[in-house]
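Quick note —
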Amino acid sequence: MDTVSVSHPYSELDRPPLSERTLAAALVRPNALWRSLRVVAETGSTNDDLVAAADGGAPSGTVLVAESQRAGRGRLDRTWVSPPRAGLTFSILLRPDGVEQPAWGWLPLLVGVALAEAVEECCGVSARLKWPNDLLVGSPPRKAAGILAQATADAVVVGIGLNVLTRLAELPPGGVSLIAAGATRADRDSVLRAVLRAIERWYVAWQDAAGDAEACGLRESYRRWCDTLGREVEVTLPAGAALHGTAVDIDVGGRLIVDDGTGPQALAVGDVTHVRPR
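Predicted structure written out below.
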C-alpha cells in the first residue's frame, strides 16, 4: 500500500488534521459495520489502495482516509484534486454477503443517499443528488462531492471525495465546498462521522433486505433526493451519441429512466458518459 503515515503539523490552523485514534474510537465497535479506520497523510488513490487490500483479504468495513491524494479520480478517469486537509477523501471496502452481484450497482447510490442525509443534517446546507454519483449543495446547487465504486471478485470499494473547507479560489468551475455553500458546521471530523454512520444505517438495512432496494426503502429515498428526476436532460453515451428527453424515474436496478418521446429508455451507469440538464 503506497501510503505515508500521518503526522500532525498544524501548518494551517483552519485546516487541522484528522485524528485516526479519535475517529476509530468513535466508529469502530464490536458488531458494527466499521472494522478498521486508518488516516494517512498522503497516498496515490484510496480506492486503489483498498482494491489491493480487498484482493489481499481485508475485511468488510475497512475505511481508509487520506489527507491528500496524488492520483484521485472520479468516473471515466476524471481527476479529483483537493488541497491537503481541505476536504474528505476516503474509501470504504464492503463485502455484501448474501446479496447477488447484480444488486451491487446500488452501492454508489446508497452512499449518495447517506452522504446527502449526513451533509444536510450535520452541516445545515441543502443537498441534492445528480444521478448517479454527484452530491450537489447550496443554491443554486453545485457539485460538492463525487462517488466512485469499483468491484472486485467478491468486494466493492466505494470512494468519496467531498469538498469541506475548500476556498472559492481553490474550487474547479462549477464546484462548491460546504463552507462556501454557507454550512453552519463544517469541521471535517464531525462530517466524516456523520457520513460513515449514515452509510452504516443504509448498508445494514440494504444487506438485511438481501439487496432489495425497494424493500429497504433505498429506491424511494434516492428518488426523493435526486435532482435529475423531472428535468429535461441530454445524455451523452460512450459512443458519442446523445439522447434527449425527460428523466422520469429510477428503476429497481438503479437505472435512470429517460423518456425521449418514443418511450422510456433505461440507462445504467456504465452506459452513460454524461447527464446534463437542457
